[in-house]
Amino acid sequence: MAHDAKHPQSFHHPHDDCGLPVREHVLMSFSDFCFAYEDRPTLRHITLDIYAGDSVVLMGDNGSGKSSLLKAMSGLVFAQQGSYRFDGEEVCERSMRDSGFSKRLHQRVGFIFQDSDSQLFCASVADEIAFGPRQMGLSEMDVEKRVDDTCRMLGIDDLRNRAPYALSGGEKKKVAIACILSMNPDVYCFDEPLNGLDAKTRAWLLDFLRELKRAGKTLVIATHDQSLADALADYFVYMDDFHEYGDRPHVHINQ
């Protein structure tokens, strides 16, 4: 695909009765974004706009760059060529050195890793959930309320005093989500969210993702699970073998 190809938004976004796009606000914008790990190209010439409220599914083989694109959205890796802007502000090494900017971005963009163990590091579940709100500078009273509300919402009150390392895979996934939910971000980035989960937890997580979508949150989900993709995607973003974004016919579109 040519590097200057445009994201065909008329294919992707729901339209009103007059044929005009319902989405109006570009939240995440990549322009010729390139990134390499130790000189190995990982993301090449990504030009892509994601609108507030979109539910986007990243598709592609293992190693095609899906996880790296999620990390870029979350300010964990940066453009070596081109740019990434969140809500109009460039996200780069310089801007992320500004503690105020960094906190705002991490408050607004939540990243749930494929491996929950890489996300959990505190002594108790309650401390895990409280960590983000504390970093945001909330008072201890407000932090405790967020922990209470999040535990109640996800049905994990009984886990509050447990050590995260002692939890089951499904429980760890719920706690990892709770850590992000407690900050009430605008964007949820999920990397293979259904991997390693039993049928009951998979069903719970799919319902939870539908609730986020109905609430108008922006979802970006990397998955190989076609049933999850079909249930949630407004459109697909395909990553090819050359670590580039490439458009293909968009068959499954929820409006």
Description:
The protein is of the alpha/beta class. The chain has one domain (25-246): 3-Layer(aba) Sandwich (Rossmann fold), CATH 3.40.50. It is built from 9 helices and 10 strands. The protein has a 6-stranded mixed sheet with strand order 6-7-8-3-9-10, sandwiched between helices. Strands 2-1-4-5 form a 4-stranded antiparallel sheet, covered by helices on one side. Helix 5 (125-135) packs across helix 6 (140-154) and helix 5 runs parallel beside helix 7 (169-181). The longest helix has 16 residues, at 199-214. The chain is globular and about 45 Å long. Mean pLDDT is 84; it is low at 1-12 and 247-255.
What is the gist of this entry?
35% of the residues lie in helices and 23% in strands. It is of the alpha/beta class.
Element string (H = helix, E = strand): HEEEHEEHHEHHHEHEHEE
Question: How many domains make up the 3D coordinates?
Answer: 1
Question: What is the global morphology?
Answer: globular
* N-to-C CA distance: 27 Å
The number of distinct β-strands equals: 10
Could you say which structural class the secondary elements and strand pairing correspond to?
alpha/beta
Average of pLDDT: 84
How big is the Rg?
A: 18 Å
User: Uncertain segments of ≥5 residues (pLDDT<50)?
Assistant: 1-12, 247-255
CATH fold-level name: Rossmann fold
Please report the number of helical segments. Answer: 9
Sequence of strands across the biggest β-sheet? 6-7-8-3-9-10
Named CATH architecture: 3-Layer(aba) Sandwich
Q: Biggest β-sheet, characterized?
A: 6 strands, mixed
Question: How large is the share of residues in beta strands?
Answer: 15-25%
CATH superfamily label: P-loop containing nucleotide triphosphate hydrolases
